[in-house]
Amino acid sequence: xxxxxxxxxxxxxxxxxxxxxxxxxxxxxxxxxxxxxxxxxxxxxxxxxxxxxxxxxxxxxxxxxxxxxxxxxxxxxxxxxxxxxxxxxxxxxxxxxxxxxxxxxxxxxxxxxxxxxxxxxxxxxxxxxxxxxxxxxxxxxxxxxxxxxxxxxxxxxxxxxxxxxxxxxxxxxxxxxxxxxxxxxxxxxxxxxxxxxxxxxxxxxxxxxxxxxxxxxxxxxxxxxxxxxxxxxxxxxxxxxxxxxxxxxxxxxxxxxxxxxxxxxxxxxxxxxxxxxxxxxxxxxxxxxxxxxxxxxxxxxxxxxxxxxxxxxxxxxxxxxxxxxxxxxxxxxxxxxxxxxxxx
Length: 344
Description:
Blueprint: H1 2-22, H2 42-47, E1 59-61, E2 64-66, E3 72-73, H3 78-83, E4 88-89, E5 93-98, H4 104-121, E6 127-132, H5 133-139, H6 144-151, E7 158-163, H7 166-177, E8 184-190, H8 198-211, E9 215-220, E10 231-237, E11 243-245, E12 248-250, E13 258-266, E14 273-279, E15 284-287, H9 334-338
Parallel strand pairs: 5-9, 5-10, 6-7, 6-8, 8-9
Antiparallel strand pairs: 1-2, 3-4, 10-13, 11-12, 13-14, 14-15
Helix pairs in contact: 7-8
């Protein structure tokens, strides 16, 4: 009996190591004997985590995702959706990370773009944006007229909750994440607070799974830390291209909003980087075409059989420190040229 228990524990240990290497969700590998799928355990009850819904059970491996067709939010860019094995998981906590404070606008714009895609599927539900007073003072609030013009979001569809402290913002996010009356929940956090640990993010992830609604965790100006989010996207602003017209690109103009999106962490994808443009007319993402050769190339000679033409006239300059005739400084000026600079 003792040998059987030791062998079972050894097998489970090996399975956990394999899951870590392959990127498989470890919570899918084994369940307690006699437990029903989605049953609430004593540990979950004490932690305040609700059971997971059985229809959303999936097994994810790096490069392969077995999920329901409606369980993923497609970004609309084929290469990025393929890298994410179909898109972002809807019933999950997804992290959108800005490394610096100046990236707050790009991160917020990318989150609003995702909210626009979500509201296409849930047009009658609002989105709740939660943040602390500090983050709203630093990054500001989205502009109502811009919401409709750029993202097609009606001002009454975006609700804000400003909390005085992070602990209050986390409590509001946990309560909101369990509500099916919201299309999505956005939680914006600044820096690397200690309260935003694995336990807090696990609670948010579990409640998002139960409600079947996405929770977007926006992290501003902080280094990556372990979280329960299965996907972490690192977002920054990309240079805008020129505006397209009938006659071609308009020189000196500013085109569509552009984002540099990197896959920082994913259970189903390898790291990668993409440059996306948001089409405010179609309310959809498009990938910017990559330059085939970004390095400047010296043009070929016009004659094609001879090297580049010879240089023009060669000019001779006097040696450093020498003066041409008639340009010698006068005697009273000479000390100012050769003496060291004095303070005072």
